[in-house]
Amino acid sequence: MKKTTHVPSNLTKLAKDFQSIDQMMTMLPVLKKMPIIDISEVLSLMENKDLFTVLCEFPISEQGEIFAEFPLVKQLSFFQQISKKRFSKIFEEMPSDARADLFQILTQQEQIDLLPFLNKHIRENVLALSSYPADTAGGIMITDFATVSRDMSCFEAIQKVRQDAPSKKTIYYVYVVGEDQTLVGFITLKDLIIAEPDVLVNDELHTEFVFGYVDESSESVAAKIDKYELVALPILNSKNQLVGIVTHDEAIDVIQAEHTEDMERFMGIISNNEELDYNQTSIFDHFKKRVFWLVTLAIVGIISGLIIHSYEGALAQMMILALYMPMVADTGGNAGSQSATVIIRALALGQVNMKSWFAILWKETRIALMLSICLGVLAFAKVVFLSWETDIPAAYSLVAIGGVIALALSLQVISSTIIGAALPLIVKKVGGDPAVVASPAITTIVDISGLLIYFSIAATFFNLK
Amino acid sequence: MKKTTHVPSNLTKLAKDFQSIDQMMTMLPVLKKMPIIDISEVLSLMENKDLFTVLCEFPISEQGEIFAEFPLVKQLSFFQQISKKRFSKIFEEMPSDARADLFQILTQQEQIDLLPFLNKHIRENVLALSSYPADTAGGIMITDFATVSRDMSCFEAIQKVRQDAPSKKTIYYVYVVGEDQTLVGFITLKDLIIAEPDVLVNDELHTEFVFGYVDESSESVAAKIDKYELVALPILNSKNQLVGIVTHDEAIDVIQAEHTEDMERFMGIISNNEELDYNQTSIFDHFKKRVFWLVTLAIVGIISGLIIHSYEGALAQMMILALYMPMVADTGGNAGSQSATVIIRALALGQVNMKSWFAILWKETRIALMLSICLGVLAFAKVVFLSWETDIPAAYSLVAIGGVIALALSLQVISSTIIGAALPLIVKKVGGDPAVVASPAITTIVDISGLLIYFSIAATFFNLK
């Protein structure tokens, strides 16, 4: 038990406290034994010049791997301060997906400066991979994988894999391709090891397999890796030729980014589908992501104002109604957001499907009934026991007023819960992402329905205005 | 290109439409070629009696795998309708984690009925695994892994793995243990294949590795698998002995469940940390998860009522203030929820740390300033252009009133954004999960601060009451 994940955070502290290059060199033997990710975390804190010196102490293949784990902005600034010829060596050793990601953010001139130093194979690979949008399977796949042909023996296949392997990131699945590179099946490394050496690959071949297409969304690809518990998913072009694989760790990154996107959307923040860091996003970009919904909903809020305006007379006659307006509006907003959250997650995890929409709404209605009874009783008690100071018209007792407000709140909870549950289903039905049903939007909608319920019930019972 | 992921959904439809056992038997050859997950999806729709007949058509090892993928309630009902002796054969072939999960939900009597039919090794394994809480590493690990000792040659190691492998779910990492079963390092299957056959395992050994402990939280273990991009993470007991591994697909499940939990908590739904299905959760359980926050916040809403009550006189003098109350409250709630969402995600993804809390709040303040200008201008325009019908006191112009309401809204947006950003940081500081800062709670808090800002500014400028 020598190195653990606890050490790096100390080292990170060290690297921060003693940033002199000499001290880093002293730490080098310890550093070299750590996982690549941790080495990268420590080195990314250094100045580019010192970083270069330290990086040169690692074998060239590790230089690429360590560099690939730096944040993109760090990669870019390092790239800009080092000779392109020297950099090309590091670049060639980076995983193909990280290479394409960096290449995509270079200016055209920077790309032109770098390309001549790359060997032909790498150059073509970079140009091909960086042509795919970041949110497609093509944008997240790597091109290092092992292939064999079906007429090899398992022994020959292992020999082939052994030969190719050092340059492959993942060889747990060995893909079996025809002469035209179309994917005919796969065989796991485990199968190869277990099989008798002279058995043909063809006999162990899995011809039924899950795959993705290059232009498929990264989210769909990640969902397949999740569902089928794969270590990697083969990616095909339109001719069914194998062009790359997406690995399980990419799938986790996609799922994490999707979560951020869902949560932001649900809070009325416009998500631009790029995996951006909070700190790296400028204040103006943060502003742009948030302002649209805030302004839109404030405009829609005019309707609430108009409703209150039309009941101004009623309000003047019975001022106590103003006191409980926020409670009715807020409770409705909360209940609606809750049911929307539950339905959005259930849809995202595939726990409910569109066919059962009636059953879902019926279930939500029954839940809402239980909630409305609790909250109605609470509202009644609040009005009766806490309003002794408020002037009320002599014609009505506090109990009657409490009853009416409790009834209004109960109806508001029921309608809000149903609206909150129905909106994601409707959005899904018309082909949208249910997560766009933002909680602020629900709040604003049920505010309007709530005020209508509240005032129309009060006006009816008390003959106001 | 024969079977793809598109077929299963059709088959699911088929299984639903023609539930006769004969038709299912006809489909069997097609079914058998599908991935286990898909077979399981189709079969889970059948009646237990028919299901048993169809299941018997599969090899016994696949019976366990297919059965393990059924929802837990289906597993339970099947278990209850079949002889325990026959069931023990299926049970023994299930992955060890799925076995423990089912065992944990059996009644004590059911456990006692099943145990005698299990072989000794499996019985001990089930009892050991089911003793770990579901949200710890022990609760999600599997006990099938490959171990070798360091003095073996790579050739011998491969022979050992070949021998053991059929019973191991994952052999991509081969663990190297000492005589007392303490973990001394690992070697990947890839290393073994690439190495010359007579090289000692000891020479290829990775002695620096990431691991987890049995009592560590499942979320912490999943985060390690994510960070270090592992296919599996070794799990040790307090004596540093290797007792299990957690695989990458479990990590995805944990991350998904964690996200549901975060989102539910954020919407004021009490999350009970169990991965429950929407449909399988009873109405009463749904009710219980939601009612606590709704009632609590409705009670806290009393404060809003008291504030309005104390400004009743002001409201009566200037009824136009009532019209813009919802806009101020809602916009504040939305702005606060947005900043809280952004900070909670940034904390969850490790993009910001507690040391930079001042920088975060300063950044949020500047974003809020930009938002407040937009919304202030909007509020001013609303008041000036849409309030011609409302009676206002002769002493003040609509422009003056618009200016005051715009100022109040701007201050509300700024204070709400800062409150929304600060609350998760405070919760994290005192050691809690930032995601418990529920959006409904923020809404309620900024409602109170908003009403105070709104009425105190209006009262000051217009000398009300």
Structure description:
The structure is a homodimer of 465-residue chains. Chain A is mainly α. Chain A folds into three domains: 6-135, MgtE N-terminal fold; 146-246, CBS-domain; 283-462, SLC41 divalent cation transporters, integral membrane domain (Tetracycline Repressor, domain 2), CATH 1.10.357.20. Chain A has 22 helices and six strands. In chain A, the strands form two sheets. Chain A has a three-stranded mixed sheet with strand order 1-2-3. In chain A, helix 15 (218-227) links the parallel strand 4 (212-213) and strand 5 (232-236). The interface between A and B is large, with 123 and 122 residues. Chains A, B: The chain crosses the membrane at residues 291-311, 367-388, 394-423, 435-462. Chains A, B: It comes from Myroides albus.
CATH topology of the largest domain in chain A: Tetracycline Repressor, domain 2
Oligomer: homodimer
The coarse overall form of chain A would be elongated
Q: Which sequence of SSEs, written as H and E, runs from N to C of chain A?
A: HHHHHHHHHHHEHEEHHEHEEHHHHHHH
- Could you name the ranges of chain A where pLDDT drops below 50 across 5 or more consecutive residues? 1-10
What is the number of domains of chain A?
3
Radius of gyration of chain A: 31 Å
Structural class of chain A: mainly alpha
If interface size is counted as residues with C-beta under 8 Å from the partner's C-beta, which chains form the largest one? A-B, 123 and 122 residues
CATH architectural type of the largest domain in chain A = Orthogonal Bundle
Strand order of the largest sheet of chain A: 1-2-3
